[in-house]
Each structure stands twice: as C-alpha cells, then as structure tokens.
C-alpha cells in the first residue's frame, strides 16, 4: 500500500497569512491525525478526524482547524499565521479506530512551514 | 499532570552493543505504550506496541519491556548498527482517548 502523503513538503508564508496543508492517508485508514513538531515543544497533537468528524482535539487555538473528506483525505488550515507557527506539520493515519485498535500512527513525511 | 520522560541526552554506543532507551511516565495508567523511530526531517515510523498486560515484546533485534508498577518502558536494540542511529520516541494514550501522546525522544548514535 502507498504510505501517507502530504503536500506541499515545504512552505514559506508571511505573518498574518493563512495556509492550508493536505494529507492523503493510507488506503483503508479512516482515522487521520495532525501533529505539530517543534524543537522546543516536541510532537504535539492538534486534532483527529474520523469519518469526516473531528473526534479528538488538542490544546491549540482556534486558528488551527481541519476537515476530512468522504475519501478520508484531510486538510489542515492555519489562519493569521504567527512566527511561532513555524514547525513541521505531520499527518498520521491509523487503522480503524474501533475498540481493540490501539492507534498505531503511520506518519507522512510532513510539511515544513516557515513563517517570516 | 501527565508527563512522559525520555532522556534528553543523546545515547552514544559502539556498533554491535545493545542500546537501551528508557521511557518513564507519571499520572498515566496507559492501556498500551508505543515506540517510534524518527530520522531528521522525516515523520516518525511506528516500531512496536506493547499492551498493559504484556511484560515484554520482541521484533527482530528490538525488545520492549513494560513495567506498569515502575511506570517505565525499556526499549532495547541488540547488535546495534550505525543505521540504527535516529531519535526514538515513546508514546502513550492520554486524555481519556486512544490518541497517543509522544515523549520528546532520545537520540541514539551508533558509532562504527
């Protein structure tokens, strides 16, 4: 099976702008999670989508939002970018999130966002 | 509050030796614990999952132990190779969901 793909791989934006990142999960995976990774904070959970619904959410401001489409592809949007939003944004898909599934995450290569 | 602790100092070992990495946690009662490998600039790669009722899990040269009394997991790589050099992350579910929360990771450097 093809792995998780993310586009774009690199992005440079200016403070105040908005950005949309895209993720295509592994075929058959319905759970898609987004993470932010920075040297200072490590890997932090943003949110998880399952069957087009946000099922879990981390502690990030409302500027960070996402959605999932019927084919399980997901997008993440960050509005009003701040310098501190510079990070590696990782998407991960997981096998069906029923009880008995322990949410092993299969990560994409990430999108490196730089805010200037 | 819940906390996952991994040694922030890099672990340097010689090729052929066994590398042992530690993951300690507080204020968790996790149903499982996972280990991932991450190379620079790339996404983490899932390696192993061990459940709360399992003491030990093996996969090729990898071995994970899980001590729920000590609230600790040990991750071993036997016969280490330079290609094993990477950052290793442990992850536990938190917040009442099954979504894993990640530790900061420990960098392993295997010298030829």
Concise summary:
The complex is a heterodimer of chains A (116) and B (112). By secondary structure, chain A is mostly beta strands. Helix content of chain A is 0%, strand content 52%.
Give a verbal description of the structure.
The complex is a heterodimer of chains A (116) and B (112). Chain A is an all-beta fold and 116 residues long. Chain A has strands at 5-7, 10-13, 19-24, 31-38, 42-50, 53-57, 64-68, 74-78, 87-94, 106-107, 111-115. In chain A, strands 2, 4, 5, 6, 9, 10 and 11 form a seven-stranded mixed sheet that branches. The mean pLDDT of chain A is 92. Chain B is mainly β and 112 residues long. At the A-B interface, strand 5, strand 9 and strand 10 of A face strand 4, strand 5, strand 9 and strand 10 of B.
Key terms:
heterodimer, A: 116 residues, mainly beta, 7-stranded mixed sheet, 4-stranded antiparallel sheet, 0% helix, 52% strand, globular, B: 112 residues, 6-stranded mixed sheet, 5-stranded antiparallel sheet, 11 strands
């Amino acid at each position: 099976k093809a792995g998780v793909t993310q586009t774009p791989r690199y992005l440079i934006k200016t403070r105040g702008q908005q950005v949309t990142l895209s993720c295509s999960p592994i075929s058959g995976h319905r759970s898609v999670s987004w993470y932010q990774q920075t040297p200072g904070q490590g890997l932090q959970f943003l949110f998880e989508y399952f069957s087009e619904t946000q099922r879990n959410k981390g502690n990030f401001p409302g500027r960070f939002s996402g959605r999932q489409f019927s084919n399980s592809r997901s997008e993440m949007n960050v509005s009003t970018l701040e310098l501190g939003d510079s990070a590696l944004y990782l998407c991960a898909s997981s096998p069906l999130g029923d009880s008995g599934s322990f949410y092993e995450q299969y990560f994409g290569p990430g999108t490196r966002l730089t805010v200037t | 509050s819940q906390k996952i602790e991994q040694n922030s100092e890099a672990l340097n070992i010689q090729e052929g030796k066994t590398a042992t990495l530690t993951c300690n946690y507080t204020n968790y009662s996790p149903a499982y614990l996972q280990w991932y490998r991450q190379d620079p600039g790339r996404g983490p790669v899932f390696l192993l999952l061990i459940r709360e009722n399992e003491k030990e899990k093996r996969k090729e040269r990898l071995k994970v132990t899980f001590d729920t009394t000590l609230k600790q997991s040990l991750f071993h790589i036997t016969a280490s190779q330079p290609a094993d050099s990477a950052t290793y992350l442990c992850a536990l579910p938190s917040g009442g969901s099954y979504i894993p929360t990640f530790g900061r990771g420990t960098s392993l450097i295997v010298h030829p």
